[in-house]
Specification:
The complex is a heterodimer of chains A (113) and B (180). Chain A is built from 3 helices and 2 strands. Chain A is mainly alpha-helical and 113 residues long. Chain A has one domain: Orthogonal Bundle (Helix Hairpins), CATH 1.10.287.3510. In chain A, α2 packs antiparallel against α3. In chain A, 51% of the residues are buried. Chain B is mainly alpha-helical. Chain B has one domain: NADH-ubiquinone/plastoquinone oxidoreductase chain 6, subunit NuoJ (Four Helix Bundle (Hemerythrin (Met), subunit A)), CATH 1.20.120. In chain B, α1 runs antiparallel to α2 and α2 runs antiparallel to α3. Chain B is globular. The relative contact order of chain B is 0.06. The chains are: A mainly alpha (113), B mainly alpha (180). The interface between A and B is large, with 81 and 92 residues.
Chain lengths: 113, 180
Amino acid sequence: MIPLIAQVSADGLQVEPGWYMALAAVLFAIGATGLLLRRNALVMFMSIELMLNAVNLTFVAVDSGLGSLEGQISVLFVMVVAAAEVTVGLAIIVAVFRKRATASVDELSGLKG
Amino acid sequence: MVEVIVFAIFALAALGGALVMVSARNPVYSAMGLLLTMFSMAVFYVMNGAHFVAAVQVLIYAGAVMTLFLFVIMLIGVDRTVDTDEKIPLQRPMVVVLGTGLVFLVIAAAWDSWITGRASGVCTVDCTGTIEAISEELFGAWLLPFEATILLLTIAAVGTVALAQFALKPRLVESGGEEE
């Protein structure tokens, strides 16, 4: 159980891949919090993007820790899927907005019995 | 030491941007906060040697995706009165507790393995993510998944067009026959 700051090697304080992963964990949690907290569909969508970005940062940090390239390839695929997801998701939000004139997910309770 | 300072500055920027995104009333401010976080991510990618991924991050995320977000925000208008009422009682306190719990859970679960562990592998030959190295991998071992993304993007584009079409149709065909 070494504290994060105590890792001073011979050539001074180094940024370890673990630091990036800790940061990514915090960013992921902020994204999850935003997804639960906000009612605006657009902001919820941005929270999902933030969570995807946090996972991408984890991939890249693991890559530089292990000295491989597979994580960066995975990041590229995640980006492609996220781009496709954003297009379809925003089209759905715009379609819903045309019908209901709101972007709040609380108003979309039409399926409730 | 420079690396540590750069990491600290941009980690603060990323966290600040993320918090602004979650807490801002105006969706435009949320988008700006997310933009700051995404630029900080690009800096982190460069610091980890992922140069091509950093370029793609700026081009795709900060450029295309955020522009699309801002476009849709401007298109459907900014409604600020969304967050005033609570449908579920005690939603906000519960969410804050769950969020902090998630942070501590993730960090505690992986504390020994990655946060305090040293980097196990050493970059021997050429594992910075230059375009050459990435394309060697992408068009070699990952060719089939790469081809599959072409299919995915085509389906997404067609689906978007279809959604735009179907959203228009009911209003044109039957006027007022919809619910409410």
